[in-house]
């Protein structure tokens, strides 16, 4: 079984571009945004950096 989630990638009108960091957080892949280099959990919540504590909007699939 697979789960798919889609998140918006804009904060304050700025589109973020994500890459994989190669790190894990609670056994999940950690992403980073190339603009601020903030780290993001797989649930698309900022965990380190400028956007720590920020959650991206989840879009319906």
Write a concise synopsis of the structure shown.
With about 60 residues, the protein is mostly beta strands.
How is the topology of this model organized?
Layout: E1 6-7, E2 10-11, E3 14-15, E4 18-25, E5 28-33, E6 39-40, E7 46-48, E8 58-59
Description:
This protein is mainly β. It has a domain at 18-55. 0% of the residues lie in helices and 44% in strands. The chain has strands at 6-7, 10-11, 14-15, 18-25, 28-33, 39-40, 46-48, 58-59. The protein has a 4-stranded antiparallel sheet with strand order 4-5-6-7, with no helix packed on it. The two termini are 16 Å apart. The mean pLDDT is 90.
Q: Largest beta sheet, briefly?
A: 4 strands, antiparallel
Shape descriptor reads globular
Structural class: mainly beta
Average of pLDDT: 90
Q: Tell me roughly what share of residues is in helical segments.
A: under 10%
Measure the end-to-end span: 16 Å
Contiguous low-pLDDT stretches (5 residues minimum) are none
How would you write the strand order of the largest sheet?
4-5-6-7
Strand and helix order: EEEEEEEE
Proportion of strand residues: 35-45%
Say how many strands there are.
8
Total helical elements: 0
- What gyration radius follows from the Cα positions, in whole Å? 11 Å
């Amino acid at each position: 079984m697979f789960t798919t989630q889609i998140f918006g990638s804009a904060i304050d009108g700025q589109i973020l571009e994500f890459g994989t960091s190669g790190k894990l957080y609670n056994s999940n892949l950690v992403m980073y945004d190339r603009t601020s280099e903030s780290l993001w959990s797989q649930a698309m919540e900022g965990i380190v950096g400028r956007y720590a504590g920020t959650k991206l909007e989840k879009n319906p699939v």
